[in-house]
Design goal:
- By secondary structure, the protein is an alpha+beta fold.
- The chain folds into two domains: 54 residues, no CATH class; 74 residues, no CATH class.
- The chain is built from two helices and seven strands, in the order H-H-E-E-E-E-E-E-E.
- The chain is globular and about 45 Å long.
- The structure holds zinc ion.
- The site of zinc ion (ZN) has 8 residues, from loops.
C-alpha cells in the first residue's frame, strides 16, 4: 500500500460507519442504533469469531470470567491472551480464568483529552492492577471511587461491562 492511499481508506471507513448507524430492517422499519465510532478511532477490539482468533476471550468475558491463555508446553501465562506462545511458538494454548481480586499498583486520573466516546466520563481513573496470586499486572479503567480518594494499594475486583453497543470489556471496581 502506498502512503497516498491511506487517507482515502480512512475516509471510506468513516463513511461506512455512518451508513451502518442508519440501517433499516428488510421490512423498512428504522432500527434504533447508537452512532458507531469510526472504525479507525474505535478504542475497543472487534470481538466476534470472524474478527479475531481471540473471540473466546470475549465469550468468556460475557460469562463474567476474565481469562487468558497458557502454554501447556512450558507453562507460560500470557497477557494479553495470545494465539501463539511467544516462547515456543506453539499454538495449542489453553484458557485459564484469572483471579478476580487485585491491588492497585499505580493509577492516573484522566481529566481531559479522553478518547472518542469517553468524553462524558471525564474525570475517570485508569491504572495498573496486580492480580492476586499470579504475576500479572493489568491496565484498565478503575471505577467505584473518585481519583482523589483512590490510593496505591487499594483493593479492586475485576468486572465485565457492556461498552454500549453489545461488546464487552473488563474494568476494575474499587472495593476497599
Ligand atoms: Zn510455549
Amino acid at each position: 500500500m502506498s502512503v497516498a492511499e491511506k487517507p482515502r481508506r480512512a475516509v471510506a471507513g468513516l463513511e461506512a460507519s455512518a451508513a451502518r448507524s442508519a440501517e433499516t430492517t428488510p421490512s423498512g422499519a428504522e432500527v434504533s442504533t447508537r452512532p458507531r465510532r469510526p472504525f479507525l478511532l474505535d478504542f475497543f477490539p472487534l470481538e466476534g469469531e470472524s474478527d479475531t482468533r481471540l473471540a473466546r476471550f470475549y465469550d468468556r468475558l460475557r460469562a463474567g470470567r476474565l481469562s487468558t491463555t497458557r502454554c501447556p508446553n512450558d507453562g507460560e501465562v500470557h497477557w494479553p491472551p495470545r494465539v501463539a506462545c511467544p516462547r515456543c511458538h506453539g499454538e495449542a494454548l489453553e484458557w485459564i480464568d484469572l483471579p478476580e481480586q487485585g491491588t492497585v499498583y499505580a493509577f492516573s486520573a484522566v481529566l481531559g483529552g479522553a478518547p472518542l466516546g469517553m468524553e462524558s466520563d471525564v474525570p475517570y481513573v485508569v491504572g495498573l492492577v496486580d492480580l492476586d496470586g499470579i504475576a500479572l499486572r493489568l491496565f484498565g479503567r478503575i471505577e467505584g471511587t473518585t481519583w482523589d480518594r483512590l490510593t496505591i494499594g487499594h483493593r479492586v475486583r475485576v468486572e465485565a461491562y457492556d461498552i454500549g453497543d453489545g461488546r464487552k470489556f473488563y474494568r476494575f471496581r474499587a472495593t476497599g
